[in-house]
Amino acid sequence: xxxxxxxxxxxxxxxxxxxxxxxxxxxxxxxxxxxxxxxxxxxxxxxxxxxxxxxxxxxxxxxxxxxxxxxxxxxxxxxxxxxxxxxxxxxxxxxxxxxxxxxxxxxxxxxxxxxxxxxxxxxxxxxxxxxxxxxxxxxxxxxxxxxxxxxxxxxxxxxxxxxxxxxxxxxxxxxxxxxxxxxxxxxxxxxxxxxxxxxxxxxxxxxxxxxxxxxxxxxxxx
Length: 222
What we know:
The protein is built from 3 helices and 16 strands. It is mainly beta and 222 residues long. It folds into 2 domains: 12-112, Immunoglobulin-like (Sandwich); 120-215, Immunoglobulins (Immunoglobulin-like). It is elongated. The relative contact order is 0.15. The model has no long low-confidence stretch (mean pLDDT 91).
């Protein structure tokens, strides 16, 4: 499940978690941790994962150890994990850490910030190499996240974009994020060189990514 920019929606974590751990170990919380009404909303914290066991920590305090909820989700090979974090929150609101275990060994860890503050602007191209034929292009995902890389769902600031070199932006500029994310495309021109794309956030600063544009060599026609 993806949005119009092919960025996975929160529900995509469930489908992703149904793959075999040999293919990819998955641990996707189905909630946002930093909230103003935190004492009322975490009686049923759901995590989508293909691990065998999860351990939850708030700050450095161990809260609980949970196994998949196979009673509720008996039709699924990898059932989600459900736990009540209300009691743990009562000991003090802090960062959340979730550890995933398979065969008794920790195989994955996720952290979620309790601060509720926009910390990073991420600029993530799908490709760093293009062909200078005037039509080749690649998607560039823009995200505002906390310090651990979790998307800030209420970040909607407009990102100012500038490009230099043999390329152009396909998309709005400035680009207003929706739910903390968005994407534009970079298209090559009919010449080789280096494209430099700079994304500027009014608070988080600027990030620059580069793309190598190779010469276009058409196939010989016989």
